[in-house]
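Regression test case RT-17, inverse folding.

Input:
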C-alpha cells in the first residue's frame, strides 16, 4: 500500500535505439550520395571562401547555385563560411568528417568543396 495510490503498469524509460553495422552505414551513405548525383542535386565547388562574414553574400552564392535548402560540406573548418551560413534557416554547414545519411536526406541540395570530396573518398572509397 502506498499513500496516494500507485500505477500498476507505470511507464518506464526505454531505449529504442539500435546498432547499425559500420558497413551498412557506408553502403547507406554511398547510396544516398549516388542518388543525389542521379537527381543533379550534388554541386561540387573548387573552394568556398569569404573575406568577411556576410550572410548576404552566402545567400547570393546559394541563389546562383539554385540551392534553396542546402547542406554545405567543407573539407576543413572555415569560420567565415560557417558564420555566414548559420543565420539562414534552410542551410546547414558541416565538415566532411561529420556527414551522415540523415542530414544528406533532409536537405535537398548537397554542396561540396573539392577537398571535402577528397576526404570523403579517402574514408568511403
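Golden output:
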Amino acid at each position: 500500500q502506498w499513500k496516494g495510490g500507485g500505477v500498476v503498469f507505470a511507464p518506464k524509460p526505454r531505449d529504442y535505439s539500435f546498432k547499425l553495422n559500420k558497413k551498412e552505414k557506408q553502403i547507406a551513405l554511398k547510396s544516398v550520395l549516388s542518388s543525389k548525383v542521379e537527381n543533379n542535386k550534388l554541386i561540387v565547388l573548387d573552394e568556398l571562401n569569404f573575406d568577411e562574414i556576410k550572410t548576404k553574400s552566402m545567400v547570393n552564392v546559394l541563389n546562383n547555385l539554385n540551392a534553396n535548402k542546402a547542406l554545405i560540406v567543407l573539407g576543413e573548418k572555415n569560420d567565415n563560411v560557417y558564420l555566414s551560413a548559420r543565420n539562414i534557416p534552410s542551410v546547414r554547414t558541416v565538415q566532411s568528417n561529420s556527414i551522415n545519411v540523415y542530414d544528406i536526406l533532409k536537405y535537398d541540395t548537397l554542396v561540396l568543396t573539392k577537398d571535402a570530396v577528397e576526404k570523403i573518398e579517402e574514408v568511403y572509397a
